[in-house]
Amino acid sequence: MFKKTYDWIDERLNVTPLWRDVADHDVPAHVNPANQMSAFIYCFGGLTFLIVVTQILSGMFLAMYYVPDLYNAYTSVQYITKEVLLGNVVRGMHFWGASLVIIMMFLHMLRVFFTGSYKAPRDLNWVVGVLIFMVVMVFGFTGYLLPWDQKAYWATAVGTNIANTVPIIGPYVRTLLVGGDTLGAVTLTRFFAIHVFFLPAALLVLLGLHFLMIRKQGIAGPL
Amino acid sequence: MGVSVSYTDKQKGLTRRQFLTYALGGTGAFMAVAAVGPLIPFAVDPLTRGTTETFSTVGTESEFNTSYPLAKDFTLKQKDGWIQVDNTYTAFIIKQQDGTYLAMSNICTHLGCAVSQQLGSDGKPTAFSNGIWFQCPCHGSQFSLTGVQTPVSPAQRPLDIFLTKVDSTGQVLVGSKKHQRTV
Ligand code: FES
Fold first, then answer.
1. CA geometry: angle A130, A220, A207, nearest 5 deg
2. B42: nearest CB among A50, A53, A85
């Protein structure tokens, strides 16, 4: 069934070369865990991406019930956790996944560092990786506020006050982050917008570049 | 089918390539299900919620009778996600021959205006003329004592009704959901 449908489409559009180009490539022996178990460290990048995908999925579904507004944010999150079918599981996926992305990304970075894979000509890809790192940190910072509970509120109060201490531009940065001088309605909506629209767009572009470069340059040689 | 018969079809059992494809596909499918599995029930949660049926008292049994419908306002609590709303409705309530109550919504079944009653000099509802008890100000729909539209009315079905019940202390209660009648 599946094969027939695929063949039918392929006959018309010749899609096979498209994914062959992406999927068909040699895996060097030194990164293949089948040859040497310790090569599993080369999976960290892919695993990070896998968790990012589940983050995007669970986030999309959470947005079905979540409302980024002073009066409804907390209650809608409570509704998700306590009433919606498997709501605590889906929220849990997003909550624990967030930490997991950061851990895996960090391990991936350590692997790249200790295998020296960041060296030219792959240094540009390291730069993109650092940008991804920053985007993920901002994901964490903005997402932390959204449940709008005490922890969220005070963590953001502290975070924005840290921004305030930057010489000269600090107060302006804080005003921009908070959306005024009080941490409140406007802060919540802008953190939400950044978290679900701006950052995912930035992340997908950067990940695209990251993957394009690794395919173009190939995996760095063995130590 | 005929043309694609090749050497793999004649093999006994699985080829190495087939086995690897299945193993890889199976692992991928398992991981996909693990990730997406909880999301589906999460999204279809509204299907698992019935309507919240609540009732509200509109008066004692002695207040109502079989000869004219009495207009009553009542408030019903509605649970809308994480929000509790109080909705106010108006119903015309009349006792039926079998002792049950008929609670008709005052919302015209044509395009949703509020139909009105006429009060006589004694302050009790009276008919407008030959069996017309409710009139709609918007396009002139007319309804009988039991809320059935006249043939010339733009409204195409009788006034909707609310559930009713009487509790042990003789209080008449009107329930949440509006039901359509077909006549
Ligand atoms: S809305 Fe009542 S007649 Fe049209």
1. 35
2. A85
